Amino acid sequence: MSNVTPVRPDVNAPTTSTTRSLRGRRRGTLENGQQAPNGGERLLIGVVLAVCTAAVMIPFLGIISTSLSTSEHLNQAGGFTLWPDGFHIGAYVSILTGGVVTRALLVSIGVTTVGTLLSLAVSSMMAFGLSRPGSLLHKPILLVLLFSLLFSPGLIPLYLTVKQVGLLNSYWSLILPGLISAFNVIVLRAFFMNIPNELFESARLDGASDWHIFTRLVLPLSKAVLAVIGLFYAVGYWNSFFNALLYLSDQSKWPLTLVMRTYVLDNAQLSQGDLGAAVDALPPQPALQMAMLIIAIFPILCVYPFLQKHFTTGMLTGAVKG
Amino acid sequence: MVVERTLVSKSAALPEASSGETVAGIRPRKKLTHRFGRDKTLLLMCVPGLAVLITFHYAALAGNVIAWKDYKPYLSIATSDWVGWDNFKVITEGDPAFLGAVRNTLVLTLIQSVLVFPAPIILALLLNSVMSLRIKRAVQSVLYLPHFLSWVVVVAVFQSILGGGGLINSFLRQHGATTLDIIGNPDLFIALLTSQVMWKDTGWATILFLAALSGIDSSLYEATAVDGASRWRQIWHVTLPGLRGVIILLLILRLGDSLSVGFEQIILQQRAVGIDASEVIDTYVFNHGVVGNSWGEATAVGLVKGVIGTLLVLGANKLAHVFGEQGVYKA
């Protein structure tokens, strides 16, 4: 209840008691004391997990390979290949040097950056505002937050509200309606409430205001949970396409996901005019399509290793308290 | 992602909100003016979040009145005519398109509950019996990844593997075999949707089960081992009972979501397979309302769906309490 750093470095690390870890692992058991599988079972487990892993890895391999291949190679392979015939980055150059994909990428980056920062700021402020039970209006505000989980307004009423507020066809329509998720606020609040009160008391004795306590004490102590919640918000903004489809009628404002829908899923052809000026020959369509997918996946792959160890914190902080 | 996280945070936060004023940091009640002076920073910090909730949740919720109106986009909500319960006739009189959407929704929900729900439990049990921690972590890193991809990417991945010009069909064509018609085949659409959901989220969903597994007291395993229990009996008598709470929580939330299946996923693939095979309640609301301009009727359908979903969660939660489980929250 009162530990300052509820961040366990890795939940998957064995949660053995001290006596057990001193004693070491008994032969023939797993870390948790369960009987270890026998040879045949172990083989079966290995095969199943290998198949699952391959089912995720092989498509990625194919996407990368296809994006780097020449048209001769792709024609021969039938459009999708698991191994490239070299390292041809023409597809990336042509979609990243201007044209529809570059513009969409910039839209996605902008919306994701602004949205994530705003979401984090508003959520963490609200979570802190609600983290002192007994403060004025604490209960009603908490109820307003919690009741929003019980019933969603529905697609059409939300659309009409966005229209009424005058956000149709504005980038803000991609950010404001989903600015805070009540779950994330509750997770942050639970985390803030876990910070020992003595810290607040001593800060207050030193003359710190609530705002100072929030910015100088609470936020620095909560970096891990903020990182995970930030990742969840960012992935949400980066991946969303339906709100853009619904609210943005001006196609030049479309984010990367919707442009991919047009050119990858619906197989619209990218012509020279849709691309940057830097290429002489148009790279093959499959390579262009797969390069777009890689560009959409790449930012996620970049932050993934840093945040992976905190996933469970973000998922379970609320529960650890209970 | 959201669904899984609901239950953990809810289960912790709700009891607190209603009862537990024993938490550290409690502020004693004093006179109102004094409390305002003391707490005004905290209140101010809630304002932006509250503004968003009130505008895009509660005010939007009120927009459901157009279920009883003949809404026209060129009129406003206020000036559109009241039409009583006319819009609900699609439901009460059973409009064929609506009934088709309901049928598809229920079939999908049923199949996904049977196939998709247990998959992460099995995968978590498998991962949990991997002896090497390093291998276990590597496998986890790979299997969590698809969860973070957009549905657009997931659908594109499936098209490049299973589609007409995809990996499998190119292979078959080169070897003179007949190609498989998977993408765009209405008969296989449900199977396709189900496998996409499994590919995307099974790995991620194991997180909760793995956390619950690591919470099982190891002395239980030791005690059963001393009593001569085999591995399978340990799974049956120790592991699965240890997961019961999480499983029930997830089932309750799943029940509440049973009328919403794969909206984004289906919208992306609807054109290829046609409306009949692919329309579910959510896509019906979009296609009938926003695309087809029957705003009132579509809102009525969405509203009824939302009410039923909420009732299902409340009912299932009650049921969990009756059976002595904690459920999602306690009132």
TrEMBL record, chain A:
Belongs to the binding-protein-dependent transport system permease family. It is found in: Cell membrane. Its main location: membrane. GO terms for biological process: transmembrane transport. Coiled coil: none annotated. Residues 1-35 are annotated as: Disordered. This is Carbohydrate ABC transporter permease. Signal peptide: none annotated. The keyword DNA-binding does not apply. InterPro entries: MetI-like, MetI-like_sf. CDD domains: TM_PBP2. The keyword Chloroplast does not apply. Pfam families: BPD_transp_1. It comes from the Bacteria. It is a multi-pass membrane protein. Residues 105-307 form the ABC transmembrane type-1 domain. It comes from Tessaracoccus antarcticus. Keywords: Cell membrane, Membrane, Transmembrane, Transmembrane helix, Transport.
